[in-house]
Write a structure and sequence with these properties.
Length: 57
């Protein structure tokens, strides 16, 4: 996994967790859903890069 892509994935996951938590605290369902979606994007990016790494070996 390239370092920059790994960092992007972790950043997306972290931002998503923060948005989800903020949405839950404030009762904003839209923000909660947006946070979950952002986490999912980070998860997909991370899985894609792990797949690339598996084929390089």
């Amino acid at each position: 996994m390239s370092a920059s892509e790994k960092a992007k994935a972790k950043t997306e996951q972290g931002k998503g967790k923060l948005k989800e938590a903020a949405g839950r605290v404030s009762g904003d369902e839209e923000l909660t859903a947006e946070g979950r979606a952002e986490q999912s994007k980070g998860d997909v990016r991370q899985a894609k890069e792990k797949g690339k790494d598996a084929f390089k070996r």
